[in-house]
Design goal:
The complex is a heterodimer of chains A (489) and B (223). Chain A has 489 residues and is an alpha/beta fold. Chain A has 17 helices and 23 strands. Helices cover 53% and strands 10% of the residues of chain B. In chain B, strands 2-1-3-4-5 form a five-stranded parallel sheet, sandwiched between helices. The chains are: A alpha/beta (489), B alpha/beta (223).
Chain lengths: 489, 223
């Protein structure tokens, strides 16, 4: 398993405040309800005791408290996310604040640094393969969510899902997660993953892929196609995220209590559906609350309220004993630089401190998630390293205090009275931060150039592609993957 | 190369001056350090020059590891300290054997100033590079420094100060060297947070060194 970082969780909300939000969500689910146009979901809700009412705009699902509580009880506290390399598995425990960092988004734009300047383009299959390879080699990246929207001419809605899962799995041995463009491609994707895992049972034991289901459009509306996907994924028994991303100020209240009450209702509604379909479905509480900017109403992931919303959600997930999929590390800035660094570092630090199990959007995202920049991902890896070290739990013990006194005594008896030589043991034990890798001692800021050099070095590292015979068989057996060979990938 | 010289090199690279030093490798706890090994080598009648060469080879390896970012400053200092400690034992043997050694380097924090961290680091680095360092400590006046230069036939002086009020003392020391007629015999290197190359030039020093690495590099260049 990967180590991640265990933190002493920051508790922003008191238990009384959490209970107030919980009560508000119960009231929203019982009395306001969610619009739902998905017939299958309406049938499932209806047959499991939820109330279906007909309103002017369509059907409304209202979930009684008892049904909500039953579903929360059925949702597992422990969820295993598998990996091609079992060393990279992520055992998520809702009650252990061990944070794993994950990439994310499906950015339409790719920002590359070349010849001293940044260049924008649409992402292609080769770029996703490159990004997955980069993810393999970033030390602090624990799982890969596809972050490049593949926009080759040959990519269609029919083959997009198998292509993105194949390219991710082929270039990264860590856990792979994605949303499905089409719910009906689930069977092909699962067949692909079974091949990689070594069989269907092996895939169940080592679920090396999982699915993001954004089943709700805020405020409080089940989306037809993604709700179908949620139902299909839940039936398969694979891990899934019930994700909601309301924007405080436009699609949700801007106040902390309003945002939390609504997003909590939306996420819980998805969890209820998943547990109605298949009790015990491994599910992550997927919270992606953002705040509207006041100048252009775009999603901001960098304003102070963003951190507050997200920390509140982490606490709510812990209250329900469900592993939390949270959010940090997206800049409003369109390019790497001072603004991006400031925006990212603040959310990494605050949201990590609250102890979510699965922190996504953490690598390379700029421009409100519209842009993925590989060089920024390298910079982010270094920032996350700093954050992890800041939040390490103290290791003070009686034995270590005795050692410290002995060290002070030794140095006091030396001619130089320097502690420098004693750094070495701590340094080699990984206890001492070696220094920002992209810093400069001179008057010039060399951060971008140094990160670019690091990126090029990583790009030259070994590709850990699948075993050739398995790879060949997958490309032959899974419909839509022939393009891989045509593209020379 | 004999086994004992190989062990000396290993322990210099490990930065382990003495047996009791814990080092960073638990596998070496309790094993003899550079000091004990140097004593054993001398008892075994290994020529002092060969021991000195082993120090030099090992420090080159330490430098290489530093360049390749396998080692950091604490490693360099630990290795330099190990060599420095052993040099105190080896130096009389080298002198007796007439072995050519590096020059005497007198170093001090100037009068009125007690800040000696930087000076200590430079001192360690110079010892590690094989210079015969005479570290006079901190709050040292012009007379004491000039006396030592004369007595030890020193070729270099390193002066350190952290305060704008005390750095003026460096000028007093250079004037004292002039008045004793020994200014041309020694190269004067100055350093410390408030100093600059302009200040060094103004007081008639030979070089301003921004950090310990530059001090060592400048010394090598001025030899």
């Amino acid at each position: 398993m990967r180590k991640g970082i265990i933190v002493e969780p920051t508790e922003r909300l008191s238990i009384d405040q959490i209970k107030l939000i919980d009560r508000a969500s119960v009231e929203i689910l019982e009395e306001i309800g969610l619009f739902c146009s998905n017939e299958e979901a309406l049938e499932i809700f209806n047959s499991n005791g939820a109330k279906i009412e007909t309103a002017k705009e369509g059907s409304l699902v209202k979930i009684p408290e008892k049904i909500l509580r039953d579903a929360i009880e059925k949702a597992p506290e422990h969820v295993l996310l598998g990996a091609r390399d079992p060393e990279n598995q992520l055992p998520l425990d809702a009650m252990v604040p061990r944070v794993y960092y994950v990439s994310g988004a499906e950015a339409n734009e790719l920002l590359e640094y070349r010849d001293g300047s940044f260049h924008r383009k649409h992402g292609k299959m080769a770029d996703l393969a490159d990004s997955a390879h980069l993810a393999e080699h970033l030390d602090n990246l624990d799982a890969f969510i596809r972050n490049v929207n593949i926009q080759n001419e040959e990519v269609t809605d029919e083959n997009k899902d198998v292509l993105k899962f194949f390219l991710s799995l082929d270039n990264c041995t860590k856990h792979v997660m994605a949303g499905l463009t089409r719910g009906d491609s689930l069977d092909e994707v699962l067949a692909l993953a079974s091949h990689v895992a070594g069989g269907e049972e092996e895939l169940r034991n080592n679920p090396l892929i999982s699915f993001i289901c954004c089943m709700v459009k805020s405020p409080l509306q089940f989306v037809d196609d993604t709700t179908s996907t949620l139902i299909a994924v839940a039936r398969s028994g694979m891990p899934l995220v019930t994700s909601s991303s309301p924007q405080g100020g436009s699609t949700a209240p801007i106040t902390e209590e309003g945002m939390l009450a609504q997003i909590n209702s939306e996420i819980l509604a998805g969890i209820v559906l998943s547990q109605m379909v298949r009790p015990g479905t491994p599910v992550l509480y997927g919270s992606v609350p953002t705040r509207a900017r006041l100048d252009d109403l775009l999603d901001s992931y960098a304003l102070p309220e963003f951190g507050q919303y997200n920390v509140g959600c982490v606490q709510l997930a812990r209250y329900y004993r469900i592993p939390c999929y949270s959010t940090a590390g997206v800049a409003d800035s369109k390019i790497p630089g001072v603004q991006a660094a400031m925006e990212k570092l603040l959310s990494y630090l605050y949201v990590t401190a609250s102890g979510p199990q699965y922190l996504h959007y953490a690598f390379g995202l700029l421009n409100h998630t519209a842009t993925f920049c590989p060089l920024q991902a390298v910079l982010d890896d270094a920032q996350i390293d700093i954050v992890k070290r800041i939040l390490w739990q103290p290791t003070i013990t009686d034995e270590r205090v005795r050692d410290a006194i002995q060290q002070i005594q030794q140095v006091m008896g030396s001619s130089t009275r320097l502690f420098a030589r004693h750094i070495r043991k701590s340094m080699r034990a990984g206890e001492v931060y070696p220094g920002y890798p992209f810093g400069s001692k001179g008057d010039e800021d060399e951060t971008i150039e140094k990160a670019a050099q690091r990126l090029e070095k990583i790009r030259g590292l070994e590709k850990k592609t699948m075993e050739p015979s398995i790879r060949e068989r997958i490309i032959k057996d899974i419909k839509g993957l022939h393009i891989i060979k045509e593209k020379g990938l | 190369m004999s086994e004992i010289l190989e062990n000396i090199k290993t322990m210099v690279i490990q930065g382990k001056p003495t047996q009791e030093d814990e080092g960073y490798d638990d596998g070496l706890i309790g094993k003899p350090g550079v000091v004990e090994l140097t004593e054993s080598a001398l008892e075994d009648s290994i020529p002092p020059k060969e021991i000195l060469d082993a120090f030099s080879d090992a420090m080159e390896e330490v430098g290489r590891k530093y360049d390749e970012q396998e080692y950091f400053i604490p490693d360099m200092l630990a290795s330099a300290e190990a060599v420095g400690s052993a040099m105190e034992i080896l130096e009389p043997y080298l002198l007796q054997a007439g072995t050519e050694m590096k020059e005497v380097f007198v170093i001090a924090t100037v009068k009125g100033d007690l800040h000696d961290i930087g000076k200590n680091i430079v001192s360690l680095m110079l010892k590690g590079a094989g210079y015969r360092v005479r570290d006079l400590g901190s709050d040292v006046g012009a007379d004491s420094i000039c006396d030592t230069v004369e007595q030890e036939d020193a070729s270099f002086i390193g002066l350190s100060a952290l305060l704008t009020s005390t750095m003026q003392e460096m000028s007093v020391i250079i004037q004292e060297l002039e008045s004793r007629g020994i200014r041309k015999k020694v190269k004067v290197l100055v350093g410390g947070a408030p100093l600059s190359a302009e200040f060094a030039e103004k007081i008639g020093a030979d070089a301003y060194c921004e950090d310990a690495f530059e001090a060592l590099k400048t010394t090598e260049e001025l030899r």
